[in-house]
């Protein structure tokens, strides 16, 4: 639904942000960066998962690579060691997260 649509033409969604970054990367051949920030419990982890899902779906071009599950699989490991209960959130991240996805020139995920 958000694939290759101009930002702002459809309702705001994390998939639209992923789509714009992915297509800008392909068109301009420049690295792209998406920063997700917010207060505790605002949905940053869930937004990150949606973002990775859409970025890997865009890059698969009709075949499944399993990269999405590998990237998302790191989340529970980090959370097991880096989350704690706070006044606002029972499972609050106590760390920053940097995820780098490398692409081939064709737009498929390299790793």
UniProtKB/TrEMBL annotation:
<keyword id="KW-0472">Membrane</keyword>
<dbReference type="GO" id="GO:0051015">
    <property type="term" value="F:actin filament binding"/>
</dbReference>
<feature type="binding site">
    <location>
        <begin position="38"/>
        <end position="45"/>
    </location>
    <ligand>
        <name>ATP</name>
    </ligand>
</feature>
<keyword id="KW-0518">Myosin</keyword>
<keyword id="KW-0009">Actin-binding</keyword>
<dbReference type="InterPro" id="IPR046987">
    <property type="entry name" value="Myo9"/>
</dbReference>
<keyword id="KW-0067">ATP-binding</keyword>
<dbReference type="InterPro" id="IPR036961">
    <property type="entry name" value="Kinesin_motor_dom_sf"/>
</dbReference>
<dbReference type="GO" id="GO:0005884">
    <property type="term" value="C:actin filament"/>
</dbReference>
<keyword id="KW-0963">Cytoplasm</keyword>
<keyword id="KW-0547">Nucleotide-binding</keyword>
<dbReference type="InterPro" id="IPR001609">
    <property type="entry name" value="Myosin_head_motor_dom-like"/>
</dbReference>
<dbReference type="GO" id="GO:0016020">
    <property type="term" value="C:membrane"/>
</dbReference>
<dbReference type="GO" id="GO:0000146">
    <property type="term" value="F:microfilament motor activity"/>
</dbReference>
<keyword id="KW-0505">Motor protein</keyword>
<comment type="similarity">
    <text>Belongs to the TRAFAC class myosin-kinesin ATPase superfamily. Myosin family.</text>
</comment>
<dbReference type="Pfam" id="PF00063">
    <property type="entry name" value="Myosin_head"/>
</dbReference>
<dbReference type="InterPro" id="IPR027417">
    <property type="entry name" value="P-loop_NTPase"/>
</dbReference>
<dbReference type="GO" id="GO:0035556">
    <property type="term" value="P:intracellular signal transduction"/>
</dbReference>
<dbReference type="GO" id="GO:0005096">
    <property type="term" value="F:GTPase activator activity"/>
</dbReference>
<dbReference type="GO" id="GO:0005737">
    <property type="term" value="C:cytoplasm"/>
</dbReference>
<dbReference type="GO" id="GO:0045198">
    <property type="term" value="P:establishment of epithelial cell apical/basal polarity"/>
</dbReference>
<feature type="domain" description="Myosin motor">
    <location>
        <begin position="1"/>
        <end position="111"/>
    </location>
</feature>
<dbReference type="GO" id="GO:0005524">
    <property type="term" value="F:ATP binding"/>
</dbReference>
<dbReference type="GO" id="GO:0044295">
    <property type="term" value="C:axonal growth cone"/>
</dbReference>
<dbReference type="GO" id="GO:0016459">
    <property type="term" value="C:myosin complex"/>
</dbReference>
<protein>
    <recommendedName>
        <fullName>Myosin motor domain-containing protein</fullName>
    </recommendedName>
</protein>
């Amino acid at each position: 639904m958000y694939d290759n649509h101009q930002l702002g033409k459809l309702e705001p969604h994390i998939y639209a942000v992923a789509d714009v970054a992915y297509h800008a990367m392909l068109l301009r051949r420049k690295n792209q960066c998406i920063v997700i920030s917010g207060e505790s419990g605002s949905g940053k982890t869930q937004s990150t998962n949606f973002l990775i899902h859409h970025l890997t779906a865009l890059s698969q071009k009709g075949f499944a690579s399993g990269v999405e599950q590998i990237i998302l699989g790191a989340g529970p490991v980090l959370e097991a060691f880096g989350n704690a209960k706070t006044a606002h959130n029972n499972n609050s991240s106590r760390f920053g997260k940097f995820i780098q996805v490398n692409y081939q020139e064709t737009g498929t995920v390299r790793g």
